[in-house]
């Protein structure tokens, strides 16, 4: 794993500079190794609250279709503020600044 991180840092540094390579490695370690929330993520304004979780995933563009959203929820790949959602029937009351995580790489900050 150490060599993979070093290779990734060097490739990014080759195209974007050494500072960008170091920043990319720090971001990777924070989000994927330590499983923390990234500092920057897209903001999504929710149309209504409470909202069905399937509709929320489709509305913010996290999933290409409702069936993909349902599949991800059933596989426990969707969390809101680090709480896994298990039911496709769930309705979520949105509060300002909630973090929606879909899979390992998609993060959204929710607002009203």
Mean pLDDT: 87
The strand line-up of the biggest sheet is 1-7-6-3-4
Number of domains: 2
Number of strands: 7
Strand percent estimate: 15-25%
Report the top-level CATH class of the largest domain. Answer: Alpha Beta
Our count of helices gives 4
Write the H/E string, N to C. Answer: HHEEHHEEEEE
CATH topology of the largest domain: Structural Genomics Hypothetical 15.5 Kd Protein In mrcA-pckA Intergenic Region, Chain A
Ends distance: 41 Å
Major pleated sheet: 5 strands, mixed
Q: What oligomeric assembly is this protein in?
A: single chain
Which class do the helix and strand fractions yield?
Answer: alpha+beta
| Relative helix content | 40-55%
Ranges with pLDDT <50 over ≥5 residues?
none
Shape: elongated
CATH superfamily of the largest domain: RNA-binding S4 domain
Rg calculated over all Cα atoms: 16 Å
- Overall CATH architecture of the largest domain: Roll
What do these coordinates show?
The structure is a single chain. With 112 residues, this protein is α+β, with helices and mostly antiparallel strands. It folds into two domains: 2-33, no CATH class; 43-111, RNA-binding S4 domain (Structural Genomics Hypothetical 15.5 Kd Protein In mrcA-pckA Intergenic Region, Chain A), CATH 3.10.290.10. It has helices at 2-16, 18-33, 53-60, 66-74; strands spanning 43-45, 51-52, 78-80, 83-84, 91-92, 99-102, 106-111.
Write the layout of secondary structure elements.
Layout: H1 2-16, H2 18-33, E1 43-45, E2 51-52, H3 53-60, H4 66-74, E3 78-80, E4 83-84, E5 91-92, E6 99-102, E7 106-111
């Amino acid at each position: 794993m150490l060599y993979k991180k070093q290779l990734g840092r060097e490739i990014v540094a080759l195209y974007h500079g050494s500072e960008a390579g170091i920043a990319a490695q720090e971001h990777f370690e924070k989000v994927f190794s330590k499983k923390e929330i990234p500092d920057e993520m897209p903001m999504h304004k929710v149309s209504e609250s409470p909202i069905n979780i399937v509709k929320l995933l489709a509305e913010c563009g996290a999933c290409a279709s409702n069936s993909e959203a349902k599949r991800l929820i059933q596989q426990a790949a969707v969390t809101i503020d680090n709480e896994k959602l298990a039911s496709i029937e769930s309705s979520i009351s949105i509060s300002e600044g909630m973090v929606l995580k879909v899979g390992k790489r998609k993060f959204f900050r929710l607002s009203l």
